[in-house]
């Protein structure tokens, strides 16, 4: 490994930076791959990066990770230019950040070569859903929420934006994730369903004319069947008595 790793914090302690631990059981327990061909990585404070993750820093790359950084699993970071995460960035499963295309395109008419790399700046208190891809030249404001599967490229300067889609667009403004109060209450649907079913069975439907006719027909057929069975039993008894008399 080449380059430098710097911890820029006055309170350095054991367990401050944790990488490769099994956080999400859906992914393999294969730790983290760290590849540094040079460049610099700066940790501003506490950092947690889960299992199945990989970080690659190029010869001139600069990766800065702010305090309270958290990535659950399968994080991929490729920094050959500059990537900076402000404080309290929360990253979901299978996110990828690339500040380079590794290849450049040439304009056929002018011969001009397009820029293949540009910095990525992720604002404070950003939350990334699962499977987002963030390309070069992306910059987000603070308290942004990025929906799952979003493809980011460009500037998003409005705080508390909800960003979705491929390509990414601001869907609404004024919403954010409060990580200090983040409990989700799931409804116990099974019990509710049982109560609803009990209520439905307790309530008897009002009889209609068709229902009354059907009930009357069933009663008639049942009485006819009973009378036939009684007649058969009487006939059997008569035959039995006759046979006994003959034997005497």
Structural description of this entry:
This protein has 248 residues and is an alpha/beta fold. The protein folds into 2 domains: 172 residues, Hexapeptide repeat proteins (UDP N-Acetylglucosamine Acyltransferase, domain 1), CATH 2.160.10.10; 57 residues. The strands form 3 sheets. Strands 1, 3, 5, 6, 8, 9, 11, 12, 14 and 17 form a 10-stranded parallel beta sheet that branches. Strands 2-4-7-10-13-16-19-20 form an 8-stranded mixed beta sheet, with no helix packed on it. It has a two-stranded parallel sheet with strand order 15-18. It comes from Bacteroides sedimenti.
Gist of the model:
The chain is built from two helices and 20 strands. The protein is α/β, with parallel strands linked by helices and 248 residues long.
Question: Mind sketching the topology for me?
Answer:
Blueprint: E1 2-7, E2 17-21, E3 32-43, E4 47-50, E5 53-57, E6 62-65, E7 69-71, E8 76-79, E9 83-85, E10 90-91, E11 96-98, E12 120-122, E13 127-128, E14 133-134, E15 139-140, E16 145-146, E17 151-152, E18 155-156, E19 161-164, E20 169-173, H1 189-202, H2 209-247
Parallel strand pairs: 1-3, 2-4, 3-5, 3-6, 4-7, 5-8, 6-9, 7-10, 8-11, 9-12, 10-13, 11-14, 13-16, 14-17, 15-18, 16-19
Antiparallel strand pairs: 19-20
For the secondary structure, the number of strands is: 20
Main beta-sheet annotation:
10 strands, parallel
Give the assembly state of these chains.
single chain
Strand content: 25-35%
Question: CATH topology of the largest domain, anyone?
Answer: UDP N-Acetylglucosamine Acyltransferase, domain 1
User: Overall pLDDT, averaged?
Assistant: 89
CATH superfamily of the largest domain: Hexapeptide repeat proteins
Poorly predicted regions are none
Q: Work out the radius of gyration.
A: 37 Å
User: What form results from the Cα inertia axes?
Assistant: elongated
SSE sequence, one letter per element: EEEEEEEEEEEEEEEEEEEEHH
């Amino acid at each position: 490994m080449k380059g430098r790793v710097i911890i820029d914090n006055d309170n350095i302690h054991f367990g401050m930076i944790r990488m490769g631990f099994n956080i999400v059981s859906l992914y393999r327990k294969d730790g983290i791959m760290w590849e540094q061909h040079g460049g610099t990585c700066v940790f501003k404070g506490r950092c947690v990066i889960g299992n199945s993750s990989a970080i690659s820093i190029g010869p001139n790359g600069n990766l800065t990770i702010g305090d309270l950084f958290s990535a659950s699993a399968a994080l991929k970071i490729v920094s050959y230019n500059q990537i900076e995460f402000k404080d309290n960035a929360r990253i979901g499963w299978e996110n990828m950040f690339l500040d380079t295309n590794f290849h450049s395109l040439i304009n056929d008419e002018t011969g001009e070569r397009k820029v293949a790399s540009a910095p990525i700046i992720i604002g404070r208190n950003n939350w990334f859903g699962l499977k987002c891809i963030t390309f070069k030249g992306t910059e987000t404001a603070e308290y942004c929420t990025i929906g799952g599967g979003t493809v980011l490229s460009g500037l998003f300067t409005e705080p508390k934006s909800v960003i979705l889609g491929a390509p990414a667009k601001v869907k609404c403004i004024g919403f954010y994730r409060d990580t200090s109060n983040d409990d989700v209450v799931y409804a116990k649907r099974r019990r509710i369903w049982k109560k609803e079913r009990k209520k439905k069975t307790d309530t008897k439907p009002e009889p209609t004319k068709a229902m009354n006719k059907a009930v009357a027909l069933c009663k008639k057929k049942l009485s006819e069947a009973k009378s036939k069975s009684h007649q058969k039993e009487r006939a059997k008894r008569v035959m039995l008595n006759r046979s006994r008399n003959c034997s005497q």
